[in-house]
Amino acid sequence: MVRIIRLLIFRLSKKFEKSPSMTPNEKILVIGALGQIGQALTTALRTRYGTMQVIASDIRMPDTPAEGPFEVLNVLDREALKRIIVDNEVSIVYNLAAILSARGEQDPIGSWQINMDGLLNTLEVGRELKLKRIFWPSSIAVFGPNTPRTLTPQHTVTDPGTIYGISKLAGERWCAYYHEKYGLDVRSLRYPGLISYESLPGGGTTDYAVAIFHEALKTGSYTCYLKEDTPLPMMYMPDAIRATLALMEAPATAVRQRDSYNLQGMTFTPAALTAAIRAHIPELEVSYAPDFRQAIADSWPASMDDRAAREDWGWMPGYDLEGMAADMIVRLRERAMSASFKA
Prior knowledge:
With about 350 residues, this protein is of the alpha/beta class. It has helices spanning about 1-15, 35-50, 80-85, 100-105, 110-130, 165-180, 210-220, 235-250, 270-280, 295-300, 305-315, 320-340; strands spanning about 30, 55-60, 70, 90-95, 135, 140, 185, 190, 195, 220-225, 230-235, 260, 265-270, 285-290. Helix 2 (about 35-50) links the parallel strand 1 and strand 2 (about 55-60). Helix 3 packs parallel to helix 5 (about 110-130) and helix 7 runs parallel beside helix 9. The protein is globular.
């Protein structure tokens, strides 16, 4: 069944693979390229368009030598951002720089500045230079305790209770404003919790779903900061990257949501994830000690209604819980083995 679903997804993706809106010489800038999404997206973009066509950037240099063009950039420095875009003849920007939900609660003002001023700098430079397209990620954090939790609609109550969610909600409105006021082609996805084997947890409320894999392989035990029966929408990183590319390659006429698209992959609880991992690591022991992140998780949706994304540009997830868990364990073991050989 999984193979059939992936075949259907592959065929649907062909609809956008050679979109006339993309050209072989397109120069792309990824801001926040060392983050969880940034690492995977930069790799995917370079594979798709060529290493030299994609300029990675972050506030610091990578720990290992960059495999392609790299610029040190503080997204709060508008003039530096503009200079990099002009000097490299960039026409498409992915701005992924952000402080996530749990970390954001520890420094609300600093988080607002990174999340909001960084976006506004990108939008203003995009307007001034007439950039071709901009991608900016939103999140399920825009929703709150009064939002319908099951199959959360594309348009519904948004009453976020975290600075991360507040900044993402404001950012969605800025994106829509710049499109409507200036014709800037800004596109966005409301990512659910993301699970990746390429990077460590980055300070998000859903990051238990990444940390548990690392601890299962390293120590055989994990203490979860959420209750075992807390359902949250999640997505495996390969699906998130594929959705991002599909949205950005879709014709402008197909992109009808100019704030941000709901995106659903799978929904599971910590207990269900534990069971899926135990199918491969039976000795895993998990205990539960809910902390302040429990209240955040309780205010978020359990599942998303993403029919708009499916209908507008052909979105369909490729991984379920069991498939994701199996692939994560294989990939993490491969990385551990590769690291031991290099050592």
